[in-house]
Design brief:
The protein is an alpha/beta fold. It has two domains: 131 residues, Rossmann fold, CATH 3.40.50.300; 60 residues, no CATH class. Helix content is 31%, strand content 25%. It has a six-stranded mixed sheet with strand order 5-6-7-3-8-9, with helices on both faces. α2 crosses α3 and α3 runs parallel beside α4. The longest helix is centred in the C-terminal third of the chain and has 18 residues. It is globular, with a radius of gyration of 18 Å.
């Protein structure tokens, strides 16, 4: 799918003005305040009405029909109601629930527990199972491993790659972490001050970044990298 134009304005100021393509798995990478979260919220129609969004999309599925796109938020600890069992927060049949829990490597017995009784990794997998319950065409991820410990973070990213291979959805991964982006995605867009400064295949950008900003992001995660001149 192609985001042919995404322009976000607020009080006559342009906050984001970008275009990009999600062919398979795309990481949208930038520092805090770069516009990556605004981009995600605009695509999800989560921005306040005061912000003007000009969006043109070319896609073989409808972005806002309620089932084609799923979203996994950054913090699994606030994504679910703590006073309601996991089972009561699914909106599919019991058989479908059990199948989804198995798909994300969780016991169906956890359906009867409350979210505070689960670990961060278990909660994030529950949230992922819920996001995949309607078999979306596009999965949007807002730094979904930030609140997790390093070992659990790697497990969640491996699970995401496996699920994408099995289910065939496209993926948009918003992050500031180049390490996580390289692990999960094969395409990348670097965003700075609401504009795309560099885009391409992950392996090419990591090996030979063209902009100083991209080099800064890479060096913050990979101090051992030597770039080709």
């Amino acid at each position: 799918m192609k985001i042919k134009r995404l322009k976000i304005e607020y009080q006559n100021q342009t906050l984001v003005d970008i275009a990009f393509t999600i062919a398979h798995s795309l990481a949208l990478v930038g520092q805090s305040g770069s516009g990556k979260s605004l981009t995600l919220k605009a695509l999800l129609k989560m921005l306040p009405e005061q912000m003007r969004v000009d969006l043109e999309i070319q896609s073989d599925f409808e972005l806002h029909n309620g089932t084609s796109v799923a979203y996994v938020p950054q913090n699994p600890f606030t994504a679910l109601s703590p006073l309601t069992t996991v089972k009561e927060q699914f909106f599919v049949s019991d058989a479908r629930m059990r199948a989804l829990m198995q798909r994300v490597d969780l016991s169906a017995g956890l359906l009867h527990r409350y979210p505070p009784e689960l670990s961060g990794g278990q909660l994030q997998r529950v949230v992922l199972a819920m996001a995949l319950s309607f078999e979306p065409k596009l999965l949007m991820l807002d730094e979904p491993t930030t609140a997790l410990d390093p070992q659990t973070r790697l497990l969640i990213m491996a699970l995401l790659k496996k699920l994408q291979a099995e289910m065939g959805f496209k993926m948009l991964f918003v992050t500031h972490d180049m390490n996580a982006a390289e692990t999960l995605c094969n395409e990348i867009c670097i965003i700075k001050s609401g504009n795309i400064v560099e885009t391409g295949l992950m392996k090419d950008i990591i090996a030979a970044p063209q902009s100083a900003y991209t080099k800064l992001l890479i060096e913050a995660n990979f101090s051992h990298r030597n770039f080709r001149e």
